[in-house]
Amino acid sequence: MKRKALVLTAAALFAAVVVCYAAADAFTGTWKLNEAKSKIGAGASKNSTVVYAAEGDSVKVSLDGTDPTGKSFHADWTGKYDGKDYPVTGDPTADTRSYTMVNAHTLKITSKKDGKVTTTTRVVISADGKTRTVTTTGTDANGMKTNAVSVYDRQ
């Protein structure tokens, strides 16, 4: 009985690893903003290019975009899809970000500045893997609500 339990546990762990790597593959790559398909409200940051890349057992996400005032920025986040806060560098609206894998094509992201949630984001990769839709809600520096739906094309 112990052997059977051990084999089942090993099989479950293997399946979990396969699912995580398959899910990471859906996001990995370079994504360019398709402004014609996007609806980005006033006061929201605009990420023109997003790159997901494996870095050891973590994921590195690099963003190039403009902040709510139109100033260009480059931000980097390296972490895991485990729901824990990891530092963000270069983003004027956040100093930590947590990513949670919802399913193989969906991520939930929570960004914080000084420990306070500034945005919540849902990222969905299309079934064909060619489109990334990012729905973000948050509060700007003045306490005003912001909303954005950004559509990206895989490069």
Order of helices and strands: HEEEEEEEEEEE
Helicity range:
10-25%
Largest sheet, strands/sense/barrel: 10 strands, antiparallel, barrel
Q: Number of DSSP helices?
A: 1
**How do the strands line up in the largest sheet?**
1-3-4-5-6-7-8-9-10-11
Extended strand count = 11
**Which topology does CATH recognise?**
Lipocalin
End-to-end Cα distance: 50 Å
The secondary structure category is: alpha+beta
- Number of separate domains: 1
Mean pLDDT: 86
Radius of gyration: 17 Å
Tell me the CATH architecture: Beta Barrel
As residue ranges, the low-confidence spans are 10-23
Strand content: over 45%
Shape: globular
CATH H level: which superfamily?
A: Calycin beta-barrel core domain
Key features?
155 residues, alpha+beta, Lipocalin, ten-stranded antiparallel barrel, 1 helix, 17% helix
Write a compact overview of the structure shown.
The protein has 155 residues and is of the alpha+beta class.
Q: What does this molecule look like?
A:
- There is one protein chain.
- With 155 residues, the chain is of the alpha+beta class.
- The protein starts with a helix and ends with a strand.
- It has a single domain, classed as Beta Barrel (Lipocalin), CATH 2.40.128.
- It is globular and about 60 Å long.
- The longest helix is centred in the first third of the chain and has 26 residues.
- The chain contains one helix and eleven strands.
- The chain has a ten-stranded antiparallel β-barrel with strand order 1-3-4-5-6-7-8-9-10-11.
- A hairpin with a 6-residue loop joins strand 6 and strand 7.
